[in-house]
Amino acid sequence: MRKIAFTLALLCFCLIARAGRVVTDSIYSKTMNCHVRFNVYLPDGFDQSADKYPVVYLLHGLTGTHTDWENLGNVRLIADELISSGEAQPMVIIMPNAGHPDRNNHWNGYFDMPGRKYETFFFSELLPAAERKYKAMGNKAQRAIMGLSMGGGASIVYAQKHPDKFSSSYAMSPWLEPTDALKGNPDRKNKFYYLTESIADNSAIRFIADADENTRQQLRTVKWFFDCDDDFLFDSSINIFRLYKAANIRSELRIRNGAHNWEYWRTSLRLALPFASRSFTE
Predict the structure, then answer these.
(1) Mean of pLDDT values over 111-129
(2) pTM to 2 decimal places
């Protein structure tokens, strides 16, 4: 009995010892004239290793923050399990803040808008500073992007605009265009209105529909995955998959039962991290 208890205790210790951790950091943005917070998942052994790591940018949804994937999405536990099992390689996961629960009076969104240039900040300030500090390899072959809903749409658009920077893009229930349920009121031009305008201005669907052959060729260097449930954003995911297929750009489409919620996205993350890991190249 004592031997069994000792074995179980040793197993628990080993599991704890192999655990990664999530830290909270911030960067001052000259572009936006404010501090922007972000969470970072660091795999087990990060502090002791001199090695550099592949990096994943994991984006939250509308009214969310940089803490969502840790507090609601179980990112640390899921990443630990996948790395421990060998389904994903050790990686750094950066989760930037681009939102607030009050969507009408506070900014949400990953694109440049009047009074807030988040996309400019992301590529010119956050990406180089965070990758330098957290030992990311800092190249297309070892960089991926993914996200849910608002962040899922942004993960597609960012990779469309910058195919030289990402090896893969994994979109979970992506918000790709304004809908009846998510549409700003032009008579009330608050921050949510400008967000929905930015979604329309940065349409991932229009981007691929209008892409010339040179652009299509660049997009073929990215691995694409569209993961959607039968919710109010279902049709746009089907549309973009069809447009990619018509453009001869290989992509994967996964349709699963579920809803627009964290139960669905936690399952998505278990698929997304191995997909990113398989897409990393030397």
Answers:
(1) 97
(2) 0.91
